[in-house]
Structures are given as structure tokens and as C-alpha cells.
Amino acid sequence: MRTLAVVALVAALLAGCDDETQSEATPKTGVRSPEGVMIRDWLMSVAHGDFGRAATFFAPGAIIDQGKPYRLRNLAAARLFNATLPCHANLVGLEDEGAKVLATFRLTPGPGGPCHGRVQVRYTIVDGKFTEWRQLQDGQEAPPPDGPIA
Hints:
The protein is of the alpha+beta class. It has helices spanning 2-24, 34-47, 51-55, 75-83, and strands at residues 58-65, 69-72, 88-96, 101-108, 118-126, 129-135. The protein starts with a helix and ends in a 15-residue tail after the last strand.
């Protein structure tokens, strides 16, 4: 019975993402692209509390930037980052920017309480791992990719 409920939840989450992304994703890169599938798989791991699996999506030394950049030195740091995200999210758009992709998420309640609105994260993905995860601030562009790193 529990397995059926999990399958139904996963199907509902995926269906919700597909409906919204059809209008918001660019033709170049949609949520069904390899990058989109990877990001959705990571989101599902976080949503299910599987922070160990969520950590495996990040390369050692990956840059995280939510206003102040720092590096995830190892798998334990990546696990902690994922475990402390206050919100859950649904992927609603994905834009190809060449070497990077810009993902748009609709925030949903998570362990930090009520969450709402949208957020954008610019990813660099190398060999199937996030090497940069830069959250754009409201109305601001992400810092240049060659800027200072902590």
C-alpha cells in the first residue's frame, strides 16, 4: 500500500511539472532534457528526505551560491546542504544558456515552513554532476562565472 502511495505521489509531481513546463520551458532545453531529468531526480531525492542520494548529484568542490559563494568540499557537505534546504520545489522551466542551464522553480512548503513564489538557479553540469549551483536573487543576475570563489 505504501509503495502504491509513493508511486502515485511521484506520478502527480511529474505530471504537475510537465503541465507547467510546456509553456515556460524554451524549445532548446525542456524539463525532459537530460539536464531537466537530472534536476527533477535531485528534487525528488530532497523531497523524499534521501539527502545521501541528493548529495551524489554534486561534484566534489561544487560551488553553492545563495548570496555568498562557498564550496561543498565533500559528500558530507553536499548532504548537509541538501538537508538544510528550507523549501521544496517543482521544476517549471529550463533554459539552455550554452555551458549552463537556468532552472525556474515554483517553491512549495518544506521543512522550513511555508514557502511560495518562484526562484531561479543557474547550474553548470559536468559529467552528470552539478559543479555550480547559483541561486539568482530577486531581479538580479548571477555573478560572473569567473568571479571570486570562497
